[in-house]
Design brief:
- This protein is of the alpha/beta class and about 220 residues long.
- It is built from nine helices and seven strands.
- The strands form two sheets. The protein has a five-stranded parallel beta sheet, sandwiched between helices. A two-stranded antiparallel ribbon has the order 1-2.
- It is elongated.
- About 35% of the residues are buried.
């Protein structure tokens, strides 16, 4: 039955051997990434809450477009000329630079250099640019001109697929009963799902038993604490 759950859910290859699962929570964003060649102005902003899969989907784009991925904190001292050979660019967590004058200035110049070359630019953030609190007006206007894709909080279909896949990677089988117990109680985050499965694996291994509800209960209590 657990195997059937995997087969019934669509997925796409991402980040090497990993799978990026598609559900109603991310289908529109995935379609927007797939259509990167048609982005207006060759730039797009991908938003969503922590753990929604922004980094994973950014890697999907990077694989498709040959993009160089740059963390926002690495913008300090970055010379836009150093990115001239990149086929495309990703700036991760761009909203985190708000209020940092040097980083805002660096992103402004990097954006202009990419635009001048026609280099596709993807930025990830927790929300739309108008909420970042940028202090550089010219950067603010350019960020607000980007297209917008939004990842919603993972739904049950997506969380189920991710839990089953993560468990299978560890040679764990999750029964329908175990999934039914976990889904209403787990945080709606892909990062949390990864941590939960790692803890569940350790719990079951320590008990020398297949993972069951009692193991899941102990893990959830421990993570909550």
């Amino acid at each position: 039955m657990a195997r059937q759950l995997v087969l019934d859910l669509p997925f796409r290859a991402a980040m090497g051997r990993d799978d990026f699962f598609v559900s109603a929570a991310n289908a529109a964003a995935v379609a927007g990434i797939d259509g990167w060649r048609d982005w207006p102005g060759a730039k797009m902003l991908l938003t969503g809450p922590e753990g929604a899969g922004k980094t994973h989907l950014a890697h999907v784009f990077a694989a498709q477009a040959g993009a160089r991925i740059i963390a926002a904190e690495a913008l300090h001292g970055l010379d836009p000329a150093d990115t001239a050979e990149a086929s495309a660019l990703v700036i991760e967590d761009a909203d985190r630079i708000a209020g940092d004058a040097a980083a805002e200035e660096a992103l402004f110049h990097l954006h202009n250099a990419a635009a001048g070359r026609g280099t596709p630019l993807l930025l990830t953030a927790r929300g739309p640019a108008r909420r970042w609190g940028l202090r550089l007006p010219d950067l603010q206007s350019r960020m607000e001109q980007a297209g917008l894709l939004t990842l919603d909080t993972p739904d049950d279909a997506l969380l189920t697929a991710v839990l089953v896949k993560l468990a299978a990677d560890r040679q764990l089988a999750l029964t329908p009963a175990l999934l039914a117990y976990v889904l209403p109680r787990i945080d709606r985050s892909l990062a949390y799902a990864q941590r939960f499965i790692a803890e569940l694996d350790a719990e079951a291994l320590a008990a020398k038993q297949k993972p069951g509800t009692k193991h899941a209960r102990a893990v959830l209590q421990r993570l909550a604490a």
